[in-house]
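Intended use. Records like the one below are meant for learning the mapping from a protein sequence to its folded structure. Do not use them to infer anything beyond what is encoded.
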Amino acid sequence: ENKGIYEPTDADKQKYGYTDKDGYLSALIEEVIKNGFKSDLCLLCGPNDDCQHNDYSLLKVVDEKMSHIRHKKIGSPLRRDWMLALVLYTGCECNFDLCESQRNGDYEKWKWFDYCLWYAI
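Structure written out for the chain above:
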């Protein structure tokens, strides 16, 4: 049985510093790191590396896609959290863990990834 999509609360907005541009970007980044996939946020590290970088260079890819002419031509409908979810889902290792977790009925582990991806699509 599918569980409904997570609905952020006012407390989530405050905790994660929600903005119209970034949405819940910090919540998604926190979840990726918490679930052991920090290297997915780094363009310099591979899937099995213990990433020690403090910047999330994958956000450069997100920002490039946000400013891409195709995105602009359709009215720039995506926030940065939604674009990050798309990039993670289409090119990173955490995608496999999200799918496995949900197949096993665990919708809490990746609630922010699921939320952001759902709205992006």
